[in-house]
Structure formats: structure tokens, C-alpha cells
Amino acid sequence: MTVTSSRPTAVGTVASYAFWGPDGKTLAEFYAAALGWKVAQEFPDENGVPTAFLVTDGSTTFVFYTAKDFKAPNWPEDELPFHLDLAFTDVPAAERRLLELGATKPGHQPGGEHWTVLLDPSGQPFCISAGWSESS
């Protein structure tokens, strides 16, 4: 016997993407500057200390949390549960700017000509490229 429901299937959208690091404010400021966005809001913990920082362009939202016990992955040895891929029209200029903002460039670069791996100020890897296309 097949059971069908007349109720519609719930459909959701992603409200925000959340990231943890040793200093949420530093991460928020880094990614806001990297993307040309702004830190739009701060959220305090139970003691009134800001520990969460909302960064947005008006349509996409990232939240950066301060996690006292945060440990950056030992990449590439540690597998990553996820990371960001950021696209820029001028990748070499973006790389220079991101390094000036506090990113670092690890020696291990598995992307060849396709992407560059950088580490954000918390030590978490992210990639930069010209973006993806169907021919990529």
C-alpha cells in the first residue's frame, strides 16, 4: 500500500551561512572587505560581549562566530567539511588584496591554473578563481 499526502512538501531557503573562528569580528571584517560587503550587525553573548557578526550584501548573509576553543584544520592533512569558493574578475589583483587583508597562501596548491587556495585569518582554507562555467 502506498501512502500519499495531500500536504505540500516543505520548501526552504538558506537564510545564512555560519562560520566559527577564534575571533568572529576579525573574520567578519576580513570577509566584508574581501567581498566589498559590510558588517551589518553584531550579536552579544549572555554577558553582553559581541560574539557573532552578520556580514551581508543585502541578498546573501554570512554570520561569523567567536569560538574560544576553535582549532583551524591542519589542511591539507585534515579533510574539510566545507569551504568557500570566491570568484573575482581579476584573480591576481584579488589575491594581492586578500593577502594585504590578512590572508596567507599555503604552499600546497592543488588547483593548478583553475583556482588558488588561501587561508583566512583564522587559518581556514578558501579558494579564489574566476568562477565556474560549464566548460570548467
TrEMBL record:
Signal peptide: none annotated. PANTHER family: CONSERVED PROTEIN, HYPOTHETICAL FUSION PROTEIN. Transmembrane segments: none annotated. Residues 13-131 form the VOC domain. This is VOC family protein. It comes from Streptomyces roseoverticillatus. SUPFAM superfamilies: Glyoxalase/Bleomycin resistance protein/Dihydroxybiphenyl dioxygenase. Pfam families: Glyoxalase_6.
